[in-house]
Amino acid sequence: MKLTLIQPRMGCEGATDAMQPLALGILAAQTPPDVEVTLVDERVGDQLLFDDPTDLVALTVETFTAKRAYQIASRFRARGVPVVMGGFHPSLMTGEALRFADSVVIGDAEGIWAGVIEDVRRGVLQRLYRQQSPPPLEGMWVDRTIFAEKSYAPIGLVQYGRGCRYACDFCSIRAFYHSHIRLRPVPEVVAEIASLERKLVFFVDDNLLSDPKAAEKLFRALIPLNIRWACQVSIDITSYPKLLDLMAESGCILALMGFESLDEHNLRQMKKGWNLKIGDYEAAIKRLYERGIMIYGTFVFGYDHDTSDAFSGSLEFAKRHKFCLANFNPLTPTPGTDLYRRLAAEKRLIFDSWWLDDRFRYGQATFHPRGMTAEELEQGCYWARCEFNRATSILGRFLDLKSNLSSLASAYTYIVANLISKREIARKQGLRLGDGSRLGRLEEV
Ligand code: SF4
C-alpha cells in the first residue's frame, strides 16, 4: 500500500521559511511499517504529481491552507484516490472539510491512524474518526526520514507538550485542545533532541509555560545538552526569575511572546488581561535581556480600542526595545474561536469564510474594526511590518550588546531570521490563497 502525505502551500508558490511539518512526521511514525510513505511538501517546492500511483492521500490542513488543500483533494478524488484530512481546520470545520474529503480525523491522530489505514485496506473508510479523549504523549515519536533531502530551515523541531492554560479569544489552540494540557516525559524529549544532532532547536509548543514546575524540570534536563534553543512562551514567564535563569542557562536565546497590544482595554477584551499581571512590559523585557534572551514580539490590531494611531505606537515600542523579530498582524477571526463567533454575531465579518473566498488576499482585513476602517487596518499592519524590516531598522536593532549581539549564536540567529522575515513579508502580502482556480467549480463529495 502507498500513502502520500501532503503539506499544502498557502498560495501559488512555496515559502523560504518552511520548517519540517512535525504533524506529518508523527503521522508517518503511526503508519504500519509495510506501508510505503511519501511526503510531498509544496512549501519547499515538491511537485504534486496527481497521476502518480497512490492508495491514500492524507493532508494536514490549517485555515490558511484549507483552500489549496481542498483543490488538491478534488484532483485526487477525481481519479478515485481516497483523501483524509486532519489538523486544526478540519477538526474545527468538520462539515466544510467533509465536503471535499472522504474522511476527516478530528483531534490528534495518535491511536487512531493505524485504524484508518486498516479501514482503507479493507475498503471501509469511515467519514469521521474522532479521539474520544486526548491521547497521552508518552512514547510519541517523529519519523524524520520523510524529511530527508528537503530544504527546510536548519533548525531541529521538538514538542514538549500540547495545549495552553490560557484562553485568548482569537486563539485556535484553545479551541482545538480546550483546557487539556499534556506533556511528554522529559527523558524522552531530551533523548529526541540528542538524536537530532542540531545545535539550534525550536520548541513548537504553543506555550512552553503551560506548567511552571514542568518547565523547570525540562530546563534543568536541557543544560547538559549544550544546545541553543528558541520557543513560544507566554510573557508571564518573566515573573518567575528562577525559571528565567534556568531558561538562559539551558541555552534559550530567543522567545516568541504575544505582547498583542499596548492598550489594556484591548488586552482585557481578548482575554489576555493576565499579560498585565506581570507589571509592565518594560520590566519584563529588561528581565529577558539581563539573561541574553532575544525577543520575537507579536502584535495584533483591530480590537475595539485600537485606532489608526496604534500601529506607530507598537512599531516604535518594538524598535526601541530592539526586538529581534516582530509581527504586526491584522486580527483575523479563525473558525471555531470565540472571536469568530462574536464578530459573526455582531455582523462585522466582511467574508463569511475568508479562507475560501476568491476575493480574499493575505494581509487583508476580514472584518470591520470599530476604531478604524478595514483598509486602515490592512495598510497599517503592512506599513508597520515594512518599517520594522527596513535595512536601517534591522541594523539599528542589531547593535545591542544586551540582546541581539549578546552571543555569536544570537547574532547569527538574528541575521538569518531577519533576512528571511524581510523576504517573506514582501512575498506574502496580497497573496491569493489556493492555486488560483475557483473553489466553487470543484467537485464536492
Ligand atoms: S497564550 Fe498563546 S497559545 Fe495560549 S491561548 Fe493565548 S494565544 Fe493561544
Notes on the structure:
The protein is of the alpha/beta class. It folds into two domains: 2-135, 3-Layer(aba) Sandwich (Rossmann fold); 154-406, TIM Barrel (Alpha-Beta Barrel). Helix content is 35%, strand content 15%. The chain is built from 16 helices and 14 strands. It has helices at 22-30, 66-78, 88-92, 94-98, 113-122, 172-177, 186-196, 212-222, 241-249, 264-269, 281-289, 310-320, 338-345, 374-388, 391-398, 408-428; strands at 2-7, 36-41, 56-60, 83-86, 103-106, 128-130, 156-158, 161-162, 182-183, 200-203, 228-232, 252-260, 294-301, 325-330. The strands form three sheets. The chain has a six-stranded parallel beta sheet, sandwiched between helices. It has a six-stranded parallel beta sheet with strand order 7-10-11-12-13-14. It has a two-stranded antiparallel sheet with strand order 8-9. α7 runs parallel beside α8, α8 (212-222) runs parallel beside α9 and α12 (310-320) runs parallel beside α14. The radius of gyration is 22 Å and the shape is globular. The two termini are 24 Å apart.
Descriptive terms for the model:
6-stranded parallel β-sheet, TIM Barrel, globular, 2 domains, alpha/beta, 15% strand, 14 strands, 445 residues, binds iron/sulfur cluster, Rossmann fold, 16 helices
From the helix content, strand content and strand pairing, which structural class follows?
alpha/beta
Distance between the termini: 24 Å
Query: What is the helix tally?
Result: 16
At the fold tier of CATH, the topology name of the largest domain is TIM Barrel
Helical content stands at 25-40%
Total domains: 2
Find the CATH superfamily of the largest domain: Aldolase class I
Strands of the biggest beta sheet: in what spatial order?
Answer: 2-1-3-4-5-6
Order of helices and strands: EHEEHEHHEHEEEHEHEHEHEHHEHEHHHH
Which outline best applies?
globular
Q: What share of residues are in beta strands?
A: 15-25%
- The gyration radius over C-alpha positions equals 22 Å
Mean pLDDT: 94
Can you count the beta strands? 14
